Amino acid sequence: MRLGIIGAGAVAGLHAHGADVLDGIELSAVCDLREDVAAAVAAPWGAAVFTDYQAMLAAGVVDAVVINTPHSLHRDMVLAAAAQGVHVLVEKPMATTLADCRLMEQACADAGVVMVVGMIQHFMAEKLALQAALATGQLGRVLMIHDYRSTDYRPGTRPDWFFDKEISGGGAFINIGAHCLDRCLWVGGAPAVQLGATTLRRFGAPVETDGAMELTLANGVQVRISIVSDTPDHIDEMLVVCELGTVTVDPRKGTFLEIDGTRSQLHATASHDIQDAFTAQLADFSAAVGGAAPSVSGDHATHVVELVLAAYRSAEDGTPVRLDEVHVASSPLG
């Protein structure tokens, strides 16, 4: 499978390295508006360099692409790839409206190509250790989840497009919150039926910098997500409360279990965990192209976008949103 990368920033190098170590995949092209940025990712692997993704798709040098670009660009890039018969791994969030999500899914289905949404949490070693512990039954049912993430949404700390709603779709919720929603739904084991949210705008930012969400899942699991900018220490922790014990998960430390006063470590963080996750995600995508079911379904990825939309609506209205009552298919995030 000849793989192209559209968007050479952030995690492009992790995708490129994954392609190098996996059998049956080669990095054949990298595209970025800045030729030097694309060349920096492409050079170690001898991949072609493009500054126009349409030209790359039309050149016939890729069978599949990773779309690693600002959120609102995902739709048009997926549609263009589908029109060329090219499979797609598109980074989260899938899109900025539910209408775009559905359009992307339909276009890929009509073209007979595979689209998978990159939800990296499903491949992180510390999260997999948590899921393995839950699968043994030793913890009983999941009852409650608290997910606490820090970030930095001070203007100037990240590229300008993150602060432009037309391009990003929002602030901390659609970016960091999408990760939190994804992993909480996965660990909680059901979609959400109700969501309430509040947001803050600090530092003079035009998008939300901080916020909190409270969710009830269809199976009764209670979820609270807190996202805070510019904290004294970086925080990325899930606390999972079960009938018979608790688990904490932190990619900087590992996975820890406590049952009846006895603590044990299920996973110790290693320096290669993040690269291993991106490699595993790419292998999962390749398997999906070959006919296997992907680890992350399109329905799940779309539901994450639906919840981000609902969170913005709840924060604006000041009331919880029932997911069976909200109709946001064509509503922009904001």
Q: Could you describe the 3D structure shown?
A:
The protein has helices spanning about 10-20, 35-40, 55-60, 75-85, 100-110, 125-135, 165-170, 170-190, 275-290, 300-315, and strands at about 1-5, 25-30, 50, 65, 85-90, 115-120, 140-150, 190-200, 210-215, 220-230, 235-240, 245-250, 255-260, 260-270, 320. By secondary structure, it is of the alpha/beta class. It has two domains: about 1-120, Rossmann fold; about 120-270 and about 295-320, Dihydrodipicolinate Reductase, domain 2. A nine-stranded mixed sheet has the order 14-13-12-11-7-10-9-8-15. The protein has a six-stranded parallel sheet with strand order 3-2-1-4-5-6, with helices on both faces. Helix 1 packs across helix 9 and helix 8 (about 170-190) packs across helix 10. The chain is globular. The model is unreliable at about 325-334 (pLDDT under 50).
What topology, given as strand order, has the largest sheet?
Answer: 14-13-12-11-7-10-9-8-15
Largest sheet: 9 strands, mixed
Mean pLDDT: 95
Q: Give the end-to-end Cα distance, rounded to a whole number of Å.
A: 38 Å
* Strand elements, count: 15
- CATH H-level superfamily title of the largest domain: Dihydrodipicolinate Reductase, domain 2
Count the DSSP helices. 10
- At CATH level 2, the architecture of the largest domain is 2-Layer Sandwich
Query: Overall 3D geometry?
Result: globular
Category by helix and strand content = alpha/beta
Helix content: 25-40%
Strand content: 25-35%
CATH topology of the largest domain: Dihydrodipicolinate Reductase, domain 2
Number of domains: 2
* Strand and helix order: EHEHEHEHEHEHEHHEEEEEEEHHE
Give the class-level CATH name of the largest domain: Alpha Beta
Q: What's the alpha carbon Rg, rounded to whole Å? A: 20 Å
The low-confidence runs, each spanning 5 or more residues with pLDDT under 50, are 326-334
